[in-house]
Amino acid sequence: MVSAVTTSGTDISARDLDIGYDGNTVVAGINFELTEGRAIALIGTNGSGKSTLLKTIVGLLPPIDGQIKIFGEAPGAKPKRIAYLGQFHASGFVLPLRAIDVVRMGRFPGKGLMGRMTSEDNDIVQSAMTAMGVEKLADFPLRAMSGGQQQRVYLAQVLAHRADLLVLDEPTAGLDVGGRERYLQAIKDELCRGASIVVATHDVQDEASLCHQVMLLAHRVVALGPPDQVLTPQTLLETFGIVIGGDQKRFTVLECVHPHDGHRHD
Ligand SMILES: Nc1ncnc2c1ncn2[C@@H]1O[C@H](COP(=O)(O)OP(=O)(O)OP(=O)(O)O)[C@@H](O)[C@H]1O
């Protein structure tokens, strides 16, 4: 687990939140807070409501009931401050995009489609591509890439955003062992920069080693709290219906070497 020094700002606050589609509740009564520099992992079975909660956080789905605030406002009010990685990516198949074009889009929220890329923007794009190991694929067409290569490119786009809140839906899907290590390092760096992160995942061990909180979902919140308290054989059995082994010694606290300076902007 990574600890940034400053945790003053509340980035997400949910109170008695019911989420779902067209008035049909998928998960009811969600309560949690996520503060600056902290991460929460949503872990649960297929169809348990993880993506639904992420879509509600980014403002793609209205809450059915209760309250959710993102940076103190309604979801969707501060898109520039949020980088969202959805489960499905269509842009590379609709448009003839190269990898670098996709990563550059990570800079657009701050400047708009017509904004000029500065040398600082180009440096950020390069460093995001290097972090995910796709710098040599910069001019490669996205539609000719493997699924894992595309996932690395979309993760590089998220990193290029330099967002205050990262909302990630199964970010390690399709990644090989090297890609996962790069992802984990990049996420640690984002946390140390002061970003907060909410991640839906099936990688219980990897994410639990990074995240300060875990929410176990099974069409309801089964448990919420620090990984070493939440990921017990009983709660995992309750969530997944099977016993899952876990080496809880991995849930150690890593301090940031260069903690962020708390500087954020609207
Ligand atoms: N667009 C939609 N309209 C109506 N119901 C939906 C829609 N998308 C998902 N659902 C339903 O909402 C429930 C939760 O789905 P959700 O996508 O949040 O699951 P998940 O936990 O992210 O699953 P997975 O691990 O498979 O990605 C499921 O029962 C699903 O059928």
UniProtKB/TrEMBL annotation:
Keywords: ATP-binding, Nucleotide-binding, Transport. InterPro entries: AAA+_ATPase, ABC_transporter-like_ATP-bd, Metal_Ion_Import_ABC, P-loop_NTPase. It comes from the Bacteria. GO terms for molecular function: ATP binding; ATP hydrolysis activity. Transmembrane segments: none annotated. The keyword Transport applies. This is Metal ABC transporter ATP-binding protein.
